[in-house]
């Protein structure tokens, strides 16, 4: 990961990391080791922040502005299933409330990304099946469509009989 600056909020002990640093943590086990909870190598600022807060999390949340561009950041549940909800600027980086970075590392180390990918594949397969079913229903409906002598489409047995009777009587 190389030399990276860790920005800590002295008021809330949250951590700001550039996008490239967060990407490295997600993809590189060595980078994760630097932020592992209770690790001897754990970043000193994180250990200090946890001690200062007594390990307590803030219960309220607020939307934050990106420190780089001042735009409002999006609240994102990392990998959609991690339960780690962070403030992210798509262009510049991510703000982690106290202990959220540790929670992310635990999620990753416990195979969270594999679970997330599996769920995503299952969701895509389910959506494919749903779309195929809708296409099949539409194809069957179109195959059964016929028009009576008055040009009204008949799409059911009742409609077909009605159209036939109108044609025979009229």
Estimate nothing, just give the exact number of structural domains.
2
What percentage of the residues does DSSP assign to strands (E)?
Answer: 5-15%
Number of helical segments with 4 or more residues? 6
Structural class: alpha+beta
Note the overall shape.
elongated
What proportion of the residues is helical, as a percent range?
Answer: 40-55%
Write out the strand line-up for the largest beta sheet, numbering strands in chain order. 1-2-5-4-3
Mean pLDDT: 78
Oligomer status = single chain
Instruction: Characterize the main sheet.
Output: 5 strands, antiparallel
The run of helices and strands is: EEHHHEEEHHEEH
Low-confidence stretches: 40-53
Q: Please give the radius of gyration in angstroms.
A: 28 Å
Termini separation comes to: 83 Å
Total beta strand runs: 7
Topology (SSEs and partners):
Layout: E1 7-8, E2 15-18, H1 19-27, H2 29-33, H3 44-53, E3 74-77, E4 85-89, E5 93-96, H4 100-109, H5 112-144, E6 146-147, E7 153-154, H6 157-169
